[in-house]
Amino acid sequence: MLDNHDNRNLSDVFRELQQAQQIQMNHSNKHRKKSCATKNSFVSHFQTNHSYKNYDLKLSHIIVGCSILIVGLAVLFPKNTSFTQSYAKEETIQEISEYELNRHRLNMQNIISENADMDKMKEQVTEERDIEFETKYNNNPTLPKSEEIVTQEGAIGKENVTAIKTYENGNFVEEIILSKEKLVEPVSKLVDIGISEFLAKHKVHIGDTMYFVDTVNLKETADASATDVAEIKKYLDVKLIELPNEEWCKVSFDNIEGYVKTTNLTSSYTTPNITEKNRIEKILIKVNIDMELNKASGLTLNDYKKIFTGIPNDTNKVFENNYTAFYNAEKKYNINGIFLASIAIHESGWASSQIANDKHNLFGYGSYDATPYESSFEFTNYSEGIDTVAKSLVKYYLNPSGTKIYDNEVAAAWYYNGPTLKGVNTRYASDENWHSKVFKYMDTLYKRLQ
To answer: 0.70 cut: is pTM over it?
Structure first.
């Protein structure tokens, strides 16, 4: 019997327990009015039946344990809910929660609830908003390093935005974007950034003027072995038109284009006195025996002072003291003043002749070969003689007939054979090499500017 009871499972115990409870209830109803004798009889029967004593004791223990277990389960699990249903419900809730978290789904219940609070409000809006444009940068080797130039201005775009905005106490807190619809595409701003060290060093740009630091040849291509195009003198200016790289650049000189190394060029920023040297060089480059003399030299009064001050051959300082007279004659009569001074030097032997000393006549003006001293003009001072000879050369030797000259007069051109030294030599002097001798003095004087 004991072995049989020990091998029962929990389900069998539950059934027996239920049956025992039912029998006890029925028995209690039928014998509720019985005497205590019956109770004593049941006890006596129980005590005398030794074969079931151990069994009844174990069964009571089981009944008590099962009752405790049932009460515990009832507390842990609601009525009509199985273990499988509970676990399934927990997993479903967790999955929904994770889905809402990952997908940022709106909890409409919460929104309604929050809007009921006067301190916090949410609203859905659709409005047009700006789209900021992008700025793009491009390296430009034809700009000085770090310099920026805007090649295209940016333009703001437009879009429709639907969003839920949150306010607390009337203040905006956050928003959740629901959708965007682009209306106008933004236009990117384009900016070129210079990377040329050469241009930055000299503070120049393409199209600016630069100057040669040496006499060099322009090349047909950016190659040292390329064909020469033209020779450019030191200090002359050129226009910078291309910069293929930091070693070579393309320039234009007097409508001639060619390539030269960047090391041969400078700027007025790098070499401040280069513009003055350039001015002088542009004057000197035009000095030649065939140059036109019925034009001003382009020299300044300071240039004349520099030329005529401290000449060793001018022992009596006649030319040094009268350089302003040659300058003034040039300005008044449109004649090359250095040409005029060179005639005076040649004819007077640097103001050492008797005619120059006695008559202030540096040119032998009016002289004839037979009686040079007697026939020559006499002036009150050197300036008067310089002015007189200048007017005579302009009116009779240097300009074609009818040319408007000084004081509303026109050129008579009695001895005109061209506005050059050779042309003047034809009728001014009997010495056929007179023009060459005068030009040597001109060349010497001009070179004193260097």
So the answer is: no
